[in-house]
User: What shape does this take?
Amino acid sequence: MAIQYGHNVFMFDLKLNNLSKKFDELLAVNDVSFNINSGEFFSVLGPSGCGKSTTLRMIAGFVMPSGGKILIGDNDITYQAPETRNIGFVFQNYAIFPHMNVFDNIAFGLKMRNINKNEIIDKVKKSLEQVNLLGFENRYQRELSGGEQQRVALARVLVTEPQILLLDEPLSALDKKLREEMKIWIKELQRKLKITTVYVTHDQSEALTMSDRIAIMDKGKISQIGTPTEIYEKPANKFVADFIGISNFLPLEKKSYSGDYINVSFLNQNFQLKINEKINQEFSSAVLRPEHIIFNPNTDKDICILEGTIDIISYQGAIIRYIINSNEFKFISEFSNLPESKIFKEGETVKFGFDINNLVLV
Amino acid sequence: MNFKKIYISYRPIFLVLPTFIFFLVFFIIPVASLFIIAFDKPVTGVLALQGEWTLKSFLRIWNRSLYFDAAVMSLTLAALVSIITLIIGYPLAYLIAKTENVARNTFLMILVLCAMQLDMVIRLFGLMVLLGDNGVINGALMYFDIIEKPIGLMYNKLGVVIGLVQFSLPFMILSLIGIIRGISPSVVEASRSLGASPNKTFWNIILPLSMPGILAGTLLVFAISISSYLVPALMGGWKVMMMPLHVYQQVAEMGKWQFGSAIAVVLFLTSLLSVLIYQKTAIRIAGGRA
Assistant: This one.
């Protein structure tokens, strides 16, 4: 059955211009700017206390910014009251009204808009259909599981046809299996409705799987904005490389520039790296992802070959992680657990290496 | 079966045993005795049980409009005091509940609690100094020629209501604070974000969620007010004859133990009945949650 939400309803882009928030002396959000395209699924990812929730709460109007602007389309909403913004907000604890049943919870936003009763009944029904909760109308919060509350919270905001959907760590209270299901479900719903979405999380796997683009925040500032691929494969700085996935940081000694190349050394191995246009001039190390390490490498000119012993093996089912000690530098490496792959033992001496073209300077 | 086994399996009972014995001896037995005496033959000056059961005392209450009026007035005043206390107490309770700064919160709590520190009689004397015919308020109004003769601020129902409100306000505030503090801030934000103004959010979300505290507070204040002896005695000057005054008069001044007990029984049953009706109604209005 077709959902009645008109696509044009959701065609709104969101701009944050130099947004800041100071709590007493603490600069919680420091000069944050980004543009989110209409219909985009945009995640703000960072450790706790990085300012991501405050940023989201400023967009919703729960927190007034100390400086900067928030625009939906060309409409400046920076200092508007939350009830006039037409933004849907899904809370970490879902914030279901405990004294109202599911029907009244979902109808609340429509009642506040003075929509007539028959239309409300109609819209609530469609909305319940959309989140697969038909028949739950008379239940109260205490009679709903975490996942059901989550869906009621989503239905409650979507039924008001908001211009922007904001989600504040909506999956963190669910258990792991349900979280995986909800990730896909939310993403599909968002894609179907084409609603501009800002998703705040500290969980990188949520951000990487669901987002069109991700902003990484650290200490109130944006560290990098990019697609999941860019964020993982071309981290802009050490914080991003460290925060997303697992990284081996190879300490480099800078030697000299020669044309498009730079000569560096690591563990007494010299190699030449091609300088690309986006290189961080302040770099001090190279990021090597665990899956880029290979055993018994061939001797191409771009392969750095090392020798070491297996310190720790950690078996994780689909992958096997080895910690390799080479001259007291510990490499973390990961291998797919394929039927034909050889499994090493702890203490075994191995030859391993990596392609220097896979290194990212940070 | 040895003692230890019995002890372990019934441990919760052992824990409440001292309280139970205390309540039995010093509360249930005296109150029950009073109930029994009320049904005994009324003889002036005799407290001892005679064992001649009769409803004479109750018929006397029923036949005299004096006591019926007293019951109605006690109920009305107690209900009025509950409502006034709620209206005055709610904003303050809300302010304290929403004050997150620990120092400020503690300060406000101390302000509320210090009202309960002073003895009741002393507090009422203080009120009398303020409200009396030669008191601060009347004195000031007359000094500035706003009034010619003192206006009656006490020794009437107004004085009783002021006294009862003053006495019960901290109980109301304490009943409300915990409940208001338990309302999740995100529920309030959700309401705003869904399009409700602060005003609508208060009536649709905050007030209904405060219902358990409102119910507890008003019931407590009602019970305190309807059974108060000291306030109508001092602030009403024996002119506002609430039921506890009749009980005192019959027993202490006239030695009519049986009749006084009967009034006490009627007072108890009236307030119990009204509390039950109120609770049922309030719970139905609050949607079965309170």
User: Anything to note?
Assistant: The mean pLDDT of chain B is 90. The two ends of chain B are 44 Å apart (CA to CA).
